[in-house]
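Table S2 (text version). Query chain:
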Amino acid sequence: MKQDLNYSEFIERYLQGEMTPEELKWFEKEIEGNIRLNEEIDLRKKVDLVLSDKDLIDLKLQLKQIHLEINEVTEKGKGAIRKIYRRVYYTAGALALLVVGLSFYMYNRDFSNSKILQEYYLPATASANFRSSGVDNLELVKAMELYQEKEFEKAIALFEKILTKDSTKIGINLYSGISHMEIQEYSKANERFQRILNNQPNPFVESAKWYLGMCYIMTNNRDKAAEQFEILADNKGYYQNEAKRILRRIK
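Corresponding structure-token output:
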């Protein structure tokens, strides 16, 4: 797993377009698969959007003007002081509303991404129904053991070895995709789930859509996540009710 870094300075330079080509290449790689960083960037964009609003520009101009008037207050007497304090009161109130609005957005943003994963994401349990004496099946038993033990990189190596020899084992793509998700290789996970969806009909389609939706949540792609959960919500399957609840939170 990637270590948590203080990305604040990098985010600012990234959004301002001040990174060197080498820094940009590195930072875009950091962004991929880092849900916390994606959320922080999205929040900063929202804040910048709010800060660029005309009303807030006017608010900042008011504060600047108040500052100038206070410097001249000795020439205007107590009546001028009362007027300035009234303006400070109303200006501070507008600023407080802005802070409350941003706080509300931050709370709901966290709830919509990280909380969804905490409540609904769980790797599929490894199946124990492998009773063939074939070499491939022995490899599959070992791969599933590694998967269950959370040795995801080793499990992936065996899953891919089996699929290379026999691409008809569509279900293995599900476990391979989840393993890639667990080590934050989301583009590869996406490819494995798409293999299942591209080879319909098969009994793994519903699960592939569910985990593909979760994969999109992990990469902060709500629109594509919603597409998968809408399909699941419209069909009477295992994930229908949970898909409906998630849709209410991300749309």
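Notes on Table S2: The chain has a mean pLDDT of 78. The chain has 13 helices and no strands.
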